[in-house]
Design brief:
4 copies of one chain form a homotetramer. The first copy, chain A, is of the alpha/beta class and about 400 residues long. Helices cover about 35% and strands about 20% of the residues of chain A.
Amino acid sequence: MTIEASGQDGSSGTRSRRLRLGMVGGGRGAFIGAVHRIAARLDDRWTLVAGALSSSPEKARASGADLLLDPERVYDGAAAMAAGEAARDDRIDAVAIVTPNFAHHEPAKAFLEAGFHVICDKPLTTSLDQARELADLARTKGVVFAVTHNYTGYPLVREARALVRSGAIGAVRVVQVEYAQDWLATRIEEEGQKQAAWRTDPAKSGPAGSVGDIGSHAFNLAEFVAGVKVERLCADLTAFAPGRRLDDNAHMLLRFEGGARGALWCSQVAVGEENALTLRIYGETGSLSWAQENPNVLVHTPIGEPPRLIRRNGAGAGAVSQRVSRTPSGHPEGYLEGFANLYSDIADQIEARLAGTSAPPEALDVPTVDDGVRGVAFIEAAVRSAKADARWEAIQAG
Amino acid sequence: MTIEASGQDGSSGTRSRRLRLGMVGGGRGAFIGAVHRIAARLDDRWTLVAGALSSSPEKARASGADLLLDPERVYDGAAAMAAGEAARDDRIDAVAIVTPNFAHHEPAKAFLEAGFHVICDKPLTTSLDQARELADLARTKGVVFAVTHNYTGYPLVREARALVRSGAIGAVRVVQVEYAQDWLATRIEEEGQKQAAWRTDPAKSGPAGSVGDIGSHAFNLAEFVAGVKVERLCADLTAFAPGRRLDDNAHMLLRFEGGARGALWCSQVAVGEENALTLRIYGETGSLSWAQENPNVLVHTPIGEPPRLIRRNGAGAGAVSQRVSRTPSGHPEGYLEGFANLYSDIADQIEARLAGTSAPPEALDVPTVDDGVRGVAFIEAAVRSAKADARWEAIQAG
Amino acid sequence: MTIEASGQDGSSGTRSRRLRLGMVGGGRGAFIGAVHRIAARLDDRWTLVAGALSSSPEKARASGADLLLDPERVYDGAAAMAAGEAARDDRIDAVAIVTPNFAHHEPAKAFLEAGFHVICDKPLTTSLDQARELADLARTKGVVFAVTHNYTGYPLVREARALVRSGAIGAVRVVQVEYAQDWLATRIEEEGQKQAAWRTDPAKSGPAGSVGDIGSHAFNLAEFVAGVKVERLCADLTAFAPGRRLDDNAHMLLRFEGGARGALWCSQVAVGEENALTLRIYGETGSLSWAQENPNVLVHTPIGEPPRLIRRNGAGAGAVSQRVSRTPSGHPEGYLEGFANLYSDIADQIEARLAGTSAPPEALDVPTVDDGVRGVAFIEAAVRSAKADARWEAIQAG
Amino acid sequence: MTIEASGQDGSSGTRSRRLRLGMVGGGRGAFIGAVHRIAARLDDRWTLVAGALSSSPEKARASGADLLLDPERVYDGAAAMAAGEAARDDRIDAVAIVTPNFAHHEPAKAFLEAGFHVICDKPLTTSLDQARELADLARTKGVVFAVTHNYTGYPLVREARALVRSGAIGAVRVVQVEYAQDWLATRIEEEGQKQAAWRTDPAKSGPAGSVGDIGSHAFNLAEFVAGVKVERLCADLTAFAPGRRLDDNAHMLLRFEGGARGALWCSQVAVGEENALTLRIYGETGSLSWAQENPNVLVHTPIGEPPRLIRRNGAGAGAVSQRVSRTPSGHPEGYLEGFANLYSDIADQIEARLAGTSAPPEALDVPTVDDGVRGVAFIEAAVRSAKADARWEAIQAG
């Protein structure tokens, strides 16, 4: 361990101002909006200045006041906000869209059309057509479009990806990815739990439940680290809670380009599991194992050698993970810090554009709208496969 | 923890002699034969008195001398041994068959026909027809026929089974079972490694590689603990090592009677994994998690409560696991002790027959020839499914 | 796990402004200053507006610019800053002092005399006389004076303290506390490592090395959770690195009021240890175990029952730890979040004073200047004991 | 992992008979006697043929029958047994003494005088004078005298010792050893628990309680692995259970030859701990960490590198630990196997004498009567120190 000045902290940069962030969704009672705000604030690269925080104008205003926003920049809806901000000299540098799944597409489109950089929660949309439309528009407009598959922001996830790329485990053979929770083990959507209600409602969540909510994270993480893409999958989707309309559990077999095989399990009824996203990758000459709930350790086993515990910012951890660490090894960083790494990398990207320079290559490791499209394609393939009794289905992202 | 006299030790029993064991296979250079011998010896219930230890007469004799056997009872083959022993007054009480897979059927049949109790390694046979033949014969002869799915002997595996039966986790929803090793990550069968050679040779191993060698253990363990049977599976089998003729990795989706779903992964190319057999079972009201490499802990999480660490013979461990423990909690027992529990339970069964009484019900938890048949049916279903591009296939044990 | 709106996030409060923070120390190249800033920012309760960031005026100005401070409020020293801020209408609400140990007393005194609330890093001072002087002055002035023994901010440390208070483990018998690091295993102070240089220099660190730097945290944590005070200790201090002038390792026996016994070990030469602060408390009817490097789990074992894994914000975690959590269980929070809890609690205290109300009792769990005095008394007792060949010495804080 | 023939199994040796073992103590209701018997049996090197199993003649006979001993060789006492066995051609090769502490000296002396090899449980005696007497007598007689500090038999404890000797961690600086249990947390000695009764009775246990029962194991293990001897200690002994006459908890500071420092904690009232013997050794260039409850992993951290998990018989494990392993890595071995390693090494020593050759050097790693003397000296030093208010006391073994 070395005790020294931190990497990500704003104090080490040369900057003349914080970037200005707007937010769609995330008003009182929301969950992920608050996470985005903390993530944006953590490294002091962003300041929240505007919002369309709720579809209820009253709640939007109250939420804006909570957040000490200038009432002038508390908008009634995304369209009004896109227009209003576009008209200002001190307009936002980017918008964060943190609404439920079904309400990503419309605001994203509005802000893209107005030329803003976009940060959107996942899954990108509830249909592949909408997702592709956003990707095309983002490409046309030439803006930054990040999708917050936040688990890619963990330092040791970045480290794992770099190790695979460097050949440390050889050609990938097997990928085991799981994302298990238990908060939907019973039908709490019937008991007024707002987060459960929209996630189990096809109208708001889209065609999938657990597959969209957490399976898409697992899929993204697997591809992000393994560096090979899933070509086909074979899925068995279940709704265990009686009467639930969307899957709350899914098992899949995966076939990757290049011949790797794998399995994905996601569940929201796995009693005792909290947020158990785990990834294990086995290659010809080594393996890697990482678990989100204990994210400061990465196990790397070269063939024929003892497993090595690579600890965040510790001995054997490379530059890529040191760059996105704030504290010395042994001082645990967690979910919020990992999420914040996305915001700081996005800041790097946008500041580079403002300065007419290039962002550091490491800052480009943030999932993009294209990854968002793949996520939606994954969801659709899983749903198709399950309907066809677990037939192999291709991921049709392209 | 309580320090007191142990359960399984022979000293607590009332007996006039040790049971006499014979062994087919297990000569010099063998692996599992020595394990069976230690297991039989551990609780002082058995004494090895006869053997057909190798197909090479010379090696058979040398191995017999190593084991201090009476040369008169060192036989050249199973048939000779069955005949020879049947003719003696002090004949063996049971025979242990510890040869490679393809060489189980013939000796098992010979000893069954001679009326001996049989202890046979897994998988029972290399074809379902042969397996069923043995089951029928065992039934006809009315003998004890145990199949050493030894992982069922671990005290906390028994505890887990009892907890499921007692309703501690409610109706089973999800079963995740894995068995990962790495010793076949490269083609060591080409380098004179005897254990690898027969396991990767279809003539000796049967139609499956990893699926038969370790997948069958995983399958058995899952059913043993979950208390529900797999009805159908969907399998993707791979041989990753270039040129290998049998699978060294398999992924399966499982559907259980009663609606539970699951996944099974077995691999012998998972670099860094030694003998990573793990089982997780999620029910409506709780879950259980156990790992063979750390077998003295069972995690039980009742819904809405913190996970509880049930430690072998420790607080919260029930009578079923205390019965098969020798040492106080905190004094780790392992693979050999778990294996020995099968031998001691088999001894209970045989002694009860000799005495004309009934064995304690707990002593009947040893896998039987019917479980052996299911294991072979599982292997055949997996191979069929994989050939049909992972189509759902039924387990045809019945 | 429940996914819902977070507790500490600013959005849930009713407030009209953020509190204004000033900082002494923490300029370019510093470590703990950046941590304080992130901690203050995390929950959006504070905004940094002024600083005397370095003893070098040039560096102070550059550091102020890094942090986007108004140049008018970037001061050349603590005295100037205390005077300057006292003269402003929008003066700071509190000052954070984050200089090396020897440079705490003077600025703390200056800001106290000017009537400011003070947040001071640990150990409070390098002599007990100075510490008592600050405590007296803080009392006279009636201000909030917090000492950042930040490990008390971890949700499950608060939970552990509450469990002990509630009688969950009965009367405390044994306390085992350790704080092990390895970054000073070699004499990196000779190689220009600035953090090591001042920590191993008696002129800047005071009479103790590891005992002051980390032993004081361990001592504070033990008393904080155990709820009983150390009366006497018996210490063996060592400087293992050749030529080092201050201890880099210490072993102590502890005797607590009420009869509990314990041991404290702190080391900065424990190769392989990063920031291994661990605490185990054994009472008559239960025990608790917590480790800083894996802070989202607290093990609670009631006598005669299996250990229970209490997870932050998870099943079985009480209100006291939920209050200081931002994310659902399973979404790890770490060092920065724990540190931030102190800042948010201090904000609660100061806002209550501004509003003429009382802070919630839970917000008073922040270590105070009196805890700071105890910390210095602990250091002095350890040094005295070690000089007298590990004679028992009393903690003379009173 | 490699699957191959095992090391310790009798089948690999060349031998004409099993060694004959006698036992003093270990009758019905005893604990450690059964452990010794399993340990002796495990590798098929010994056969139990004689015993003075209880001080009650009736119980001795019943116990002999339980164990299927020839009634002629079931003796009424140690003296009778020493005489009886000495008179036989097929006399025992060694005697195992497994009585409570106070009843070690007399039988050991009787068997030594009759020229038998002796295996004695720990602590060797209840006074240093008696211990030295046995050591002198053993030396005079030239016999093997082993003391069953069984934790030295764990493969990875041997590995750790070899690593320290090889210089893998450099000069030892810090040794942290603990042995915590909870079974005496309440006064179960008052409730008829036989094991508790003699251990808490000064007449049977000697001058110390936990220090003799488990502290002596911890002390032995620390010296065994660290390879340096404790010169002085400073001890605080406590009896927490009201009315208990011997310590049930002890804390000690340790000073080793060569300058290493350490701490020892033993407790039998540490609620939640079962048999938590742990050892951590920190040297100039590396560290080692091992825990008895999870004995198949040894953590080795070279300075500046990630921790390495050395697994029993796995990658990176050396010849010394492979030699005393029976099963491939990943197949956990535990307490009984570790204990059995002592018996097999003692068999090697005795067989070498019978054959007029030398035992392999690795077989000499079994604690001897001299280690037994050091154990008693440790106990006496701890008791002296505690009586003198934790004054430094020397270990007076020499």
